[in-house]
Amino acid sequence: MQLQDIGEFNFIDSINSDVINDASTVVTGIGDDCAIYKANPEMEQLVSIDTMVEEIHFSLRYMTPYDVGYRLMTANLSDIAAMGGIPRQVVLSVAAPKALDVAILDEFYKGIKDQCKLHHVNILGGDTVSSQEGIVLTVTIIGEVPRGTAVLRSGARPGDIVGVTNYVGYAATGLGALSYGYDGYDMTILGHQRPDPQIELGQALRMHGVTSMNDISDGLASELHEIAKASGVNIVIDEQIVPLHEETYTLAKSLGTRPVDYALYGGEDFQLVFTAPKELEDTLKKIGQITIIGQVLEGNNIVQMVTKERKIETLEARGYNHFGN
Amino acid sequence: MQLQDIGEFNFIDSINSDVINDASTVVTGIGDDCAIYKANPEMEQLVSIDTMVEEIHFSLRYMTPYDVGYRLMTANLSDIAAMGGIPRQVVLSVAAPKALDVAILDEFYKGIKDQCKLHHVNILGGDTVSSQEGIVLTVTIIGEVPRGTAVLRSGARPGDIVGVTNYVGYAATGLGALSYGYDGYDMTILGHQRPDPQIELGQALRMHGVTSMNDISDGLASELHEIAKASGVNIVIDEQIVPLHEETYTLAKSLGTRPVDYALYGGEDFQLVFTAPKELEDTLKKIGQITIIGQVLEGNNIVQMVTKERKIETLEARGYNHFGN
């Protein structure tokens, strides 16, 4: 059955179930001109918008519609995590060709709904329109953070330590293994297909007093540059202690590439990179899933890495740039 | 200059000016993973999302990029108006081909920014991505309304009166005149190109205690059906008192069409249609720009019109349906 067979209004009816995962904040959900929700008066509000375009950000030849929906939500939730916030509400827009099989959209929505359910986030509205060609998915996420505590990119100070959560270069390893058709990369392939946002770690890091934070969507090098630029500092990291998964080492060996490059330029890990006062180092390590990989120096937007050969390598800000050539 | 020449990050920098029109609610604007804003603790929050697709909702052959941006914001602001709310924040997403002339996007943004400025709304974020073909614009708007006072579609009660603001069928008249190349339709052509949301009237109607409200984006017949369905009532209106502009009568005469059909099926007026207790009739008329056109009856989702010939005509819910044939 195609989208044009059921019409816009029936389609909206069909997605209006399993969308409220925390009823305490919802006054009126999908179905009126606006949804109505309650903001916690002790909190400041966070908002972010993300769009994924077919054949630019995803291809249904390589990803299931479920995974596309799941990952779109991950990208949005990760923006809230990067502020140390708590995700609350989303609204979404789908532009799709009239001839699209409704089963594909149902799978998109299932991926979106499952990820929202995992994180107790409500879907409060949607706009469904036809496109001339290709699918364009947009999600706006609204979250909360206690007043005055959101972690910006601009708070890094010389002397701070630099840390990351879990493994970096993980999703890029899975993507690489998939593109070469290699076996034995189950963990990182899953990491590529179904990345998860680090919401709890983001809140824990915020409560412990980290000074700046970013989620790693465009590769570690690019995210470090954003912190360095926003904070007016330099950053230096140590190649030897960047936490890479064993599958990353295996793939790099097979392909003759440098393992750390998957972390620096790979993107879409949705882990967190942060800076914190040096005296927090032991406390932060006790959270678990945290590795300290470098430090913040006086300077102005230079990011460097001490290589295994103990040489200084200056890292470029190159990540994924949607309009670059 | 094309979008690909300046790159995503420079483009975001270039739009990050003239976007804060009410600084009192903004903690951190564009530039981090999320924007941060303050919600008024006395208020409930409203949210809505709208998408416009090139060659589906607009064509740059018939509209200027400025007018497209202006009207997209009108559609969003109108969703807040329809709840009796106060618009506060927007975030927007633009998917556009790499080869798009940057001047066109600048004009889109100018239309969006001017309309936001008029209504003291902040632009708190944006995502700019490349598309394979065509422009897709999405705006999420966040507003506020005093707790428990938002006007839903579901509150119409038998015995209520039905009213509209200003003229209906106005934008459709302008569109019709434009498509035939007729002169002498300056007012309605402007109404088609630069419609405005009825935010102040929406708040006034809310404060006076109207029982249901909708904005007229898909034609009066479709909006009345939405109220009738959500409220579980019938509605009857009187053709003779539907407020039409003189240009609508003139165009209908030229084309041999029925004037009221522009109001019933024309759409994109962004006026408000509402129901209210009968005893409010005189009070509401004193607001000005208000016409009482009918009444609410016991029943279940039947919408009828008493024609000039004093016959009963049952109105279909047909409006613009994005996936219909």
TrEMBL record, chains A, B:
It is an enzyme of class 2 (transferase). Residues 199-302 form the PurM-like C-terminal domain. It holds the Pfam family AIRS_C. InterPro entries: PurM-like_C_dom, PurM-like_C_sf, PurM-like_N, PurM-like_N_sf, ThiL-like. Mg(2+) 2 binds at residues 50, 79. Its EC number is 2.7.4.16. Belongs to the thiamine-monophosphate kinase family. This is Thiamine-monophosphate kinase.
